[in-house]
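User: Can you help me understand a structure? I only have the sequence.
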Amino acid sequence: MPIDPLDPRRTALLIMDVQPGIVSLYPDATETYFTRLSKLADAARVAGVHVIYVVVSFRPGHPEISPRNPGFSRVKEGDRLVDQRVHASVAPQPGEVVVVKRRVSAFSGSDLDIVLRSHDIQHLILAGIATSGVVLSTLRQAADADYRLTVLADCCLDADAEVHDVLIRKIFPRQATVTTADALLGALQASRT
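Assistant: Let's start by predicting it. Here is the structure, written out as tokens:
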């Protein structure tokens, strides 16, 4: 789907949960995926779009995780996600913001809202792992906060291809423009002219 003209100064590309502890669980996170995401981040920077990284991370011992939370309790049992690194293939450039969250949505337990408001961001472009996790949760919360939203279908991954497809084709279009990295690259180039 084509993207409406965008204002790079008021737009942020969110690269979410693309970190070693999560990528290792997704065999579809191939070199092609990382190349596409890296190329997109580079083009966003050139166009003046804010590139913001979001990672899920906990303190040693996982004191932020309640035993009543079945999903994150498994993280605690496995002593996972205590590292805040972004995957080396798409690592942030000096000065780029890395937001640390404590739950599924990029907004939950993080300072993302403050960062976005500080830069007068009105349009969020979402990419990350997993489509049914951080992308879905962030999209819903951002839509309720009146952000303009774009989801990059080929820059999101999910362990369940059918769930990914349903979200991308049927659910996300209700609140966001769903497009591809190539379409966004074209819109970024057009914004520079």
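Now, to help you interpret it: The helical segments are 20-23, 31-47, 70-77, 112-118, 131-144, 161-171, 181-191. The radius of gyration is 16 Å. Let me know which part you'd like to focus on.
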